[in-house]
Design brief:
About 30% of the residues lie in helices and about 20% in strands. It is of the alpha/beta class. Strands 6-5-4-7-8-3-9-10-11 form a 9-stranded mixed beta sheet, sandwiched between helices. The protein has a two-stranded antiparallel ribbon with strand order 1-2. It is globular, with a radius of gyration of 16 Å.
Length: about 220
């Protein structure tokens, strides 16, 4: 992380409860961990939309649903055509409809293709002098079905290192219930902090933060 990143922060205050964390340093990679239907993607999109509201760039890698579905959800928060928003669609769809900045990769198992497309996005962002950039990755979980853990770890190490070296913010989703505990622990090592999301029996959603605070926070209700 560069010396500049010590002074440059990414605001999360309007997305996560301020009692948990209000901002993170540039170059941070966060893992949003929770079960299916816990709203992990919505949380990631809110973080990207918040950045777009202050003219930060954004990119979304989608491995669960086509880019068109993700854009529809993002459009509820922001107008994607007014933002600097890039997408990598890894489910083999034909892109995001009218949104032009969609790149397609054949499957979530094509890690080389994902890496190439992300490097191209990074190159274009640097050429456009976009210094503040948020990257959402929804989700790591499908990748485990296609590649072995060692190869996935190497891929994520390169991906997160690129985010760190550029002083960007990375937000990755994972469903820990879909993986062996060892796999989750191995992947978690690559991230600076973890945002846990759970669905309590009484309803609603709760969230806590680990890693980027001095100790794990308490569980707090998430709007």
């Amino acid at each position: 992380m560069s010396a500049n990143s010590e002074r440059m922060m990414y605001d999360l205050d309007a997305v996560l409860p301020s009692s948990l964390v209000s901002e993170v340093a540039a170059g941070t990679n966060l893992l949003v961990s929770g079960p299916s239907m816990a709203g992990k993607r919505r949380l990631i999109l809110r973080m990207l939309a918040q950045g777009a509201s202050v003219n930060e760039g954004g990119a979304i890698v989608t491995t669960n649903d086509p880019a068109s579905a993700v854009l529809k959800e993002y459009r509820e928060l922001r107008d994607p055509d007014e933002d600097y928003l890039q997408l990598i669609d890894c489910v083999g769809s034909q892109g995001g409809g009218e949104h032009e900045n969609v790149r397609s990769v054949g499957s979530p198992g094509d890690l080389t293709g994902i890496g190439i497309e992300f490097s191209e996005i990074a190159r274009e962002a640097n050429e456009a002098d976009i210094q503040r950039f948020r990257i959402g990755f929804d989700s790591i979980t499908p990748l485990v079905m296609y590649v072995d853990l060692q190869r996935l770890f190497r891929f994520l190490h390169v991906f997160t290192s690129q985010i760190q070296s550029n002083d960007w913010l990375g937000i990755f989703a994972i469903d820990p219930s879909s993986h062996e505990e060892q796999a989750v622990n191995t992947i978690s090592q690559l991230f600076d902090g973890i945002v846990d999301v759970r669905l309590p029996e009484e309803g609603g959603r709760e969230v806590r933060v680990r890693g980027i605070t001095s100790s794990p926070t308490e569980w707090v209700f998430l709007d």
